């Protein structure tokens, strides 16, 4: 049997790339010269080329790309979030492209414009620095479907979220049930709105229990990173508190290291509770008690919602809520008089 | 969906040609009157016009985008690698788009074709599953500049690399200098070629020192993950070895957790050395001794090389080597008779 002519043979004989041939044969060849287009079509006729179904399928599905904007790819929280996005995107045959502008709003806006130029099908925006202005000017204006997560200051558009206020309450209740009365807080020096909710929920339960957190002495502020928590350890210890709520797990894990180096025993000398339930919590010592956000599910849920939007061409202000809950491990224990 | 504003709409409303609009919007409009330039720019702002990719491609040759293919975004090794890529891409005004096909060669090939259709400027390929066939058929054939890292079976194309054989030797020398004689190895159940080099270097030094690693009893195989290391802890302990070399840090960190739960003291009962120097090594207990790969620099170096390739249109088989070195922390100590 004669060997079947492939798209590769055509490309070779025409002296162009496979992509060029495929685009011309699929009537998407406008950007190539008339001479190139004619050469390719003539070769198709000469060899009576019939596109291979699979090869063709590869090309016709080409528009389906989801952009995923995160503040920091190296943060394990967003690593897990992206895995959730990928699981759904893959099923639905979308390609997820991840980009990160490290919380620089100008760069975010620029990258977004570039994504839109490349005919992205939709966007999952998990960056708290994205401004309402950018969403309106760049995204909505171009009718790009999008889903928001961890947004600061806008109430527009479909979104996935967790209840940060409740999460803060859960953390406070846990420490109070363990008998702690002098409690410190380690939080961001530049808090986003969801962090404020988290801290307000925490303080609400403290107040209800007629305890106080002295804003000057018991609230320590630092960057929301492992290093931030690590360097704040001495200040946290000097509050004299028997328990501390760290605003996220990265910070809490840094704090554990700092306290260890100071010779402070966790949880015997001080209980530590974090927030997020990143997958590293099981690998530090002691294993970290925390409030779980269902990170993978948030990424998957956002992507499901986005694909519905793309398929049905609808965007309202739908909100999907995901639950938070206490994960008790070894970094918290009952209050003991020293 | 609302109709997207096109360059043609702008031209019509401004009463000028499409070419005039495109040249003005691309800062090549010097030859037109100030009034014309202002009119076009005002219309762009009024309609928040984002140039369409294909239209723009006709005029501007390059849309500057770098695709970064990694096996797993959630792995902190690749998180740091990507940060290195971003640092250089940002300086050179390229947009890095990260994609991950979780070590599925078919999916990798499909994603790559899609990137190429979207006129990506170049690729950093940090996936050991990428086949020579895919590189030839999809990437080289389309004349896409690319850089390889951690490649298995191809010797073609520019690449960045570290000396895995030397890294393995460094790990073995460290343990032997500490006086260990019975040494175990915890390695992958599905090793890539660079891992084999690493293990061969390790064994070379063991042999030189007239020690032996019993292939049946002292070599434990598990998935190359934290969970893999965690679940292998009992087997590692049962070798009776006084020291163990884990093939990467994720595995070593899982092993530390597993040994801790078994009541085995590290390094008093057994010394543990890892490989990579991921940023979590400082946050586990005890802090992990390891062989450092300069992960951020590898990402940055690959990207510098790629941008040179894009700018100068050259691809040979240039190889840039990056150093490895011992990072001594607290998980290894001198051999003590039990």
TrEMBL record, chains A, B:
Keywords: DNA-binding, Repressor, Transcription, Transcription regulation. Gene3D superfamilies: 3.40.50.2300, lambda repressor-like DNA-binding domains. It comes from the Bacteria. InterPro entries: Cro/C1-type_HTH (IPR001387), HTH_LacI (IPR000843), LacI/GalR-like_sensor (IPR046335), Lambda_DNA-bd_dom_sf (IPR010982), Peripla_BP_I (IPR028082). Residues 2-28 form the HTH cro/C1-type domain. Residues 5-60 form the HTH lacI-type domain. PROSITE patterns: HTH_CROC1, HTH_LACI_1, HTH_LACI_2. CDD domains: HTH_LacI, PBP1_LacI_sugar_binding-like. One of its GO terms (molecular function) is DNA-binding transcription factor activity. It holds the Pfam family Peripla_BP_3. PANTHER family: HTH-TYPE TRANSCRIPTIONAL REPRESSOR PURR-RELATED, LACI-RELATED TRANSCRIPTIONAL REPRESSOR. This is LacI family DNA-binding transcriptional regulator. It comes from Limosilactobacillus albertensis.
